[in-house]
Design a protein that fits this description.
It is a single chain. By secondary structure, the protein is α/β, with parallel strands linked by helices. The strands form two sheets. A five-stranded parallel sheet has the order 4-5-6-3-7, with helices on both faces. Strands 1-2 form a two-stranded antiparallel sheet.
């Protein structure tokens, strides 16, 4: 079953990192321990991006900006890259960090092997964070350290971002992660189920998608429920089992 771990980290601490340069600002960063590159499902429209990721992991040092809607896989990819690089990669989810002083959070970025900053659209009304990210970008670029950002829109469309920062982000290789189609959501369900040793028939997938919320986060949470239910009952996941579980109330329908 998927688990979410909350780790007490410092500004330059990445996922599962043990050492820190700055010890005075402990941060609590939640991350999904189930997210890695092995269970990131490739799609035809992401092949070039994944080629860039492979080059980055091989030491090419490429820096990227990923954009797309919620549920497209941006956070999954950033956390997976961070784990693949190792303990000296720095993953910073802006959902967890806006309440902290940006200069303190970003102080030690140049000691990392890579810096991955998730959900930068959350800084749109925070000039303090944008200025700190601008200076951090320049330090990382001067040091030759790869940096990867994710957001809901490409840099050129982020007009509320300080022009200098928007220009810096625009220098990066920009990739679009589109929303998953219904067919791709079905493939994702089957792919992630197989990762758990579960088999979902096409009929079961159709049954789920005709009733469940469309978001990938909700579908993965549902997969957790199905995994638990199948294990507890010692039964495969079938339409009769789904009907018996009564997983969809009015507020869970699309």
């Amino acid at each position: 079953m998927r688990s979410v771990t909350t780790a007490t980290l410092t500004p330059i601490a990445a996922i599962e990192r043990e050492a820190s340069v700055v010890d005075q600002l402990p941060l609590k960063i939640s991350f999904d321990s189930d997210l890695n590159l092995d269970n990131f499902q490739s799609r035809p429209d992401l092949l070039q991006l994944l080629t860039e990721v492979d080059a980055l992991l091989a030491g090419a040092g490429q820096s990227l900006f990923l954009w797309g809607p919620l549920g497209a896989g941006k956070s999954h990819l950033l956390q997976g890259i961070s784990r693949a690089i190792g303990p000296r990669a720095l993953y910073l989810p802006m959902t967890e960090l806006l309440q902290y002083p940006p200069e303190a959070v970003l102080e030690g970025v140049a000691t990392s092997d890579a810096v991955l900053i998730d959900d930068v659209q959350l800084t749109l009304d925070r000039d303090d964070w944008q200025e700190a990210l601008f200076h951090s970008f320049n330090r990382l670029k001067a040091a030759g350290i790869p940096q990867i950002y994710s957001g809901l829109a490409p840099p050129a469309q982020m007009m509320a971002v300080l022009p200098d920062l928007r220009s810096r982000w625009g220098e990066l290789v920009v990739y679009h992660l589109p929303a998953l189609s219904e067919h791709e959501l079905g493939e994702l369900l089957q792919f992630r189920a197989l990762q758990r040793g579960l088999k979902l028939s096409n009929e079961v997938v159709h049954y789920i998608l005709s009733r469940a919320p469309r978001g990938t986060e909700a579908l993965m949470a549902l997969l957790d429920e199905l995994d638990d239910a199948a294990l507890a009952r010692g039964r495969p996941i079938t339409i009769p089992l789904l009907a018996e579980l009564r997983l969809w109330s009015g507020d869970r329908s699309r």
